[in-house]
Amino acid sequence: MINKTKNRFLKYLPIIVIAVYFAGPIFIGEYLTYLITLMAIMAIVTQGLNVMIGYAGQFSFGQPGFMAFGAYIGAIVVSRMPWIPFPLTILIVALASALLGFIIGFPCLRLSGFYLAMATFGFSSAIFELINYLGPLTGGNEGMYAPAAAIGKWKLTSTDDVYYIAAITVVLVMIGVKHISKTRTGRAWNAIRDDEIAASSMGINLQREKLKVFAFGAVLAGVSGLFYSYLIRYIESSYFSAMGLSFFLIMVVGGTGRVFGPIYGSIFIIMLPQVFGGKFNQHMNLVYGIILVLFVLLAPNGFYGIWDKIRNKSSVNMNLRDKLFSWIKRERVK
Amino acid sequence: MIFSLIVDGLAVGSVYALVAVGLVMLVKSTGALNFAHGDFMMISTFVAYSLLVQLELPFWVAIVGALAFAAVLGMVAERLVIRKLMTGPMSGIIMGTLGMAYILQGIAKIVWTDDIFKFPEFFPGDFVKIGSASISPQSIGVIISAIIIITCLYLFLNLTKVGTGLRALTQNKTAATLMGIKVTKVYSLSWALGGILAAFAGILLAPALYLSTGMGGITFTGIIAAIIGGFGNMFGAIIGGYLLGILSSVIPVYIPTELQGIIPFVLLMLVLFIKPTGILGKKMVKKV
Question: What is this structure's pTM?
Answer without folding.
Answer: 0.85
